[in-house]
Each structure stands twice: as structure tokens, then as C-alpha cells.
Design brief:
Distance between the termini of chain A: 38 Å
Largest sheet of chain B: none
Structural class of chain B: mainly alpha
Number of strands of chain A: 8
Shape of chain A: globular
Number of helices of chain B: 4
Structural class of chain A: alpha/beta
Shape of chain B: globular
Radius of gyration of chain B: 12 Å
Oligomer: heterodimer
Number of helices of chain A: 6
Chain lengths: 216, 84
């Protein structure tokens, strides 16, 4: 159950947007630094294969050493620069994104700060507006101008998949990318990953994301 | 609490009706968990998720059903609860 257990959870960006000015609750887990805090080979498949959950349901940060390689779950990948393919009909938006830098999930702590360009998007697209009506650029502008303290924005939740880090909080990630500022993160719990399994819709391995309803 | 697993059990009209009742109860009980808590955002999210659901099926190593069934309709509704 998302939000259960010892963690303070921002289940979605709507909550995050509404919580600006409040300090993000950090994990109460004493595992402050787990250099192997990344999930099993494929947390998505491992927790919700075909919708059949085989996880334990425990609400704790994902941990453990990945067995073997990073195979599986792969598929045709559209290049990040494949603008024409990404600007599909029916979606009024823009594509944004950069190629994530090289990161090593095996060396990441269970929480901390990270370059937003080292994190990939889980979703194929996002609504430009948060639940409260504010926009991605509102947050990015606030961060750049100093009106929003980045430490008051709830941490983005990360999931490791096939050796890459993906976020469950795509809009916040995009805002920090636009602001060119490091973002607070924490590893998602198993329950959060199960809850947000539907978010994994990226069709280009999370390299970029389409903004729905944004300025053209 | 609604989970993706629940949608895999929606194989009949009766099951779908029950699912929608559970979804409505979840909304009433846990509105703070709903990213899309207005009809316009909810409908927009359904369309967005459906447009991108090929990615969902590929990532989960599933084959999209050749024709819409009760389960996928349930999946669309639940996905729209939290799809950004």
C-alpha cells in the first residue's frame, strides 16, 4: 500500500505540487546509504507481471543486489532525437528530453540528490499542469528564481530497470531538468512501484517525454 | 486500495460493474491519491494512457489484447487515476 509503513510518500505529483513550501518527508528507514539500493533485474516485471503481482507487498525501499545481467524488457527504441516520430497526432504538446548521462544504479544511495538528466522518464507523456493548476514551467521558474527552495519539493521516487534509473514523478523531473538543478530523490518502495505500474509507458526508454497541453 | 492486479480479474460485465464500484469507493475514500480528480483531467488521462499503452504492454512483456475487453477497460480507468 503506497504510503504505508514508515515512509512519507508523495503518491503523485499532484500531491507534490500542492506541497510546495512543505519539506518533503524523508524515509524513516535507517538505511541512509545503501550502495546496492537498487531493485531486482526488472522491478516492473518482478512485481507486476501481466498484472499478477508476485511481490511481497512490503512497503520498504527497494533493495538487494541485482542477479545477473540487465537483460529483458527491452524492445525497439526510438531515438531521443526522433522528433517526427514523437510528435504524434492527437497529442498537442512538445517533446523534451536529453540523453541521460551515464549512471550506475548500483552505486546510488537510497536517497540523496541527483542530476535530473541522469534519470529517465517512466511515462511517454505528461500533462503540463499539476493537479492544482500550476505548470511545469511554474515550478522550473520558481526553482531558477529561488522562489522555490528545491529542498521543499518532495523527492522524486526512482526505480531501477535494466540498469537505468526511472522516476515515478515525471513532471517534477521535467521541472528540475528545465531548471538545471539537482533534485532530491529516494528509491521507490515496492508498493509504490506496483501502484504506479501503469506509468511505465515510455516508448523510447525514457529518454524524452511529450508534454501534453503545454505552450507550443 | 486499488491495484493493477485487480484489473486482471475483470473478465465479465458483472466483474466490471464491481470494479467501477470499487474505483468509486476508492475515490471517495482516498481522493488525495487521485492525480486526476476532476472529470476533465480524468478523461484526458484516459486518452493519454491509451495513446501510450503500447509502451506499457511492451515494458511489461505483455501483448495488448487484439480487441478491447472488460479487463483493458478497467485498466484504462485505473491508469487514469494516477497517470500524470
Amino acid at each position: 500500500m503506497p504510503g504505508a509503513g514508515s515512509l512519507t510518500v508523495a503518491p503523485n505529483d499532484a500531491v507534490a505540487a500542492g506541497a510546495w513550501g512543505q519539506r518533503s518527508g524523508g524515509p524513516g528507514n535507517p538505511q541512509q546509504l545503501n550502495r546496492y539500493s537498487y531493485v531486482l533485474n526488472n522491478p516492473i516485471i518482478g512485481t507486476d507481471p501481466s498484472g499478477h503481482i508476485n511481490g511481497t507487498g512490503e512497503d520498504k525501499p527497494m533493495g538487494g543486489v541485482s542477479p545477473g545481467g540487465m537483460g529483458g524488457g527491452g524492445g525497439p527504441v526510438s531515438g531521443a532525437g526522433d522528433e517526427d516520430e514523437r510528435q504524434r497526432g492527437g497529442v498537442q504538446g512538445e517533446q523534451t528530453g536529453t540523453t541521460p548521462g551515464s549512471n550506475d544504479p548500483r552505486a546510488i544511495a537510497s536517497e540523496g540528490k541527483i542530476n535530473p538528466h541522469d534519470v529517465r522518464f517512466s511515462q511517454d507523456s505528461i500533462n503540463y499542469r499539476f493537479k492544482d493548476g500550476r505548470t511545469v514551467d511554474d515550478l522550473a521558474d520558481g526553482l531558477r528564481s529561488g522562489k522555490v527552495d528545491p529542498d521543499t519539493v518532495p523527492s522524486i521516487r526512482l526505480v531501477e530497470r535494466n540498469g537505468q534509473l526511472y522516476t515515478l514523478d515525471n513532471r517534477r523531473l521535467e521541472a528540475f531538468r528545465r531548471a538545471e538543478m539537482e533534485v532530491n530523490y529516494r528509491m521507490a518502495t515496492r508498493a509504490e512501484i506496483q501502484h504506479d505500474a501503469f506509468k511505465f509507458t515510455t516508448q523510447n526508454e525514457g529518454l524524452s517525454i511529450i508534454i501534453r497541453g503545454g505552450p507550443r | 486500495m486499488m491495484s493493477p492486479h485487480m484489473t486482471t480479474k475483470v473478465h465479465s460485465r458483472a466483474a466490471f460493474i464491481l470494479f467501477t464500484q470499487q474505483l468509486a469507493a476508492d475515490f471517495n475514500t482516498n481522493p488525495q491519491d487521485w492525480e486526476n480528480d476532476s472529470i476533465d483531467r480524468f478523461l484526458e488521462a484516459i486518452g493519454a494512457w491509451v495513446e501510450s499503452m503500447d509502451g506499457y504492454y511492451r515494458i511489461h512483456e505483455m501483448s495488448p489484447p487484439p480487441d478491447p475487453d472488460w479487463s483493458i477497460i478497467a485498466r484504462m480507468l485505473l491508469a487514469a487515476k494516477s497517470y500524470e
